[in-house]
Structure formats: C-alpha cells, structure tokens
Amino acid sequence: MDMLSVGISIIALSIIMICCLNIMQLASGKEEVRQLSRQYILRMETIGYLTAADKTQMLHDLEELGLEDVDLTGTTFTDAGYGNPVILIIQGSLHMQNAAGDNLLNMIFEQQTYKITIKRMSTAKN
Predict the structure, then answer these.
(1) Confidence of residue 14 (pLDDT cuts 50, 70, 90)
(2) Where are the alpha helices (DSSP H) in the chain?
(3) For residue 124, which phi and psi values (nearest 5 degrees)?
(4) Domain residue spans in the chain?
(5) What is the pLDDT of residue 97?
(6) Do strands 107-123 and 67-71 pair parallel, antiparallel, or not at all (unpaired)?
C-alpha cells in the first residue's frame, strides 16, 4: 500500500512539474515578444512611424520567436509628426507544446495555440 501511495505521488508531482514548465515556456515566449516590441517602438519614436523595412524585419524576428498569424492592425505606418502618439500593436498566435490527456497515466504532448496581443504607445520625437 505504501508503494502505491509513493507511485501516485510521483506521478502527480511529475504532472505538476510538466504543467509548471509549460507555463514558464509560454511566459518566456510572451516576454520575448514584448522585448522585441519595445525595440521597435523605440525606433518608431525616433522615426515617427513603422517603416516598411522595419516592418519586414520585425515580422521576420517575430517568426523566429514562434509567433504566427501576425496582425499589425492599429499600428502607425505613416509619419505621426512631432509630439503625436505612435502605436505598435502586435497580435498573433504562439504555438507551444502542452501536456494533455484523458487521465494521469495516459499523458501525451499536443500542440496548443495561444493568442497574444502586445500594445505599445509612445510619442514621436522626429
């Protein structure tokens, strides 16, 4: 009976550990996207908008981070002018491996999609 309790405890702790690792992976992915958005909003402050070259590079960088179906609707693409707000909105899907299963003994890993939205706003200094 003691071995059964120990076995169930080990399985339960393993499941909890896997879930925590998955949550940390998702948080890390979102933080990487936030840091990238900060880099580009700082450029947008200086220039006054998101240039076509920066947009292309940013989309490439986001793809490398694992963000798919990127939508930049609401982003400032034309010169905002000095003192006016510049906005960067990044919406997309992060694909992560997650633990899933019907019961504790039958765990499988499946791909999960998480929708994220990052909104940054600053003032144009051009």
Answers:
(1) confident
(2) 2-47, 52-64
(3) -70, 135
(4) 2-123
(5) 63
(6) unpaired
